[in-house]
Specification:
The chain has 206 residues and is of the alpha+beta class. It is built from four helices and 13 strands. The protein has one domain: Trna Endonuclease, Chain: A, domain 1 (3-Layer(aba) Sandwich), CATH 3.40.1350.10.
Amino acid sequence: MLHPLPKCLVSLDWWCAVDDFAHQFEHGRVGENVITQWLQRHGASVTHAEHVPPDTFPGCRLHPSGYMKGPHLIHENLRLVLPDLLVFFNGGWSWVEAKHKTCFGWHRKTRQWTTGIDLGHYQQYLHIERATGLPVYLMFYHPQAQPNVRDINAGCPKESPVGLFGGLLSELQRNKDHTHKNHGRHGMVYWTPKAFSLHYPLETVQ
């Protein structure tokens, strides 16, 4: 187990969607690579889950969340989206979902910083944790202190927290701040910085 970690979319619309997906893919790769390098510097070996077309196993059922994009695990004839990385550290294996979020978002209702992931993925990662018996970590790379314009206009603090934030999914399940069914494609689940048991300064990550 990686626990504990070391201290330290042939139309104009289609083309637009493809371009947007490519941008999001490359943006995500940045964070994934940063986290991969950081894990290796701390003695871990990392394997990246690779994409498998969703129709590769047509006899299998989709998870009830309905979201089936990217690499997946087949468990009891059910397809589940996999976290990005499978990590070997200190004699055991762990799943790691690596997120590159630029900066935290300002939640206007509670007046606090939050970050999050797709709710459908979150539900499937919980299933994967139970199915494989391996811990799942969520790790968020937030390199930018300057908030986005919308948050600045909403009166957020001058700087957003930066660094590498993470925690065990089993712990984050208990510490989630809120969910929103209208955000993202399938809803979102959010946490505040204090919900993460792991926080590494930006200078130790880059």
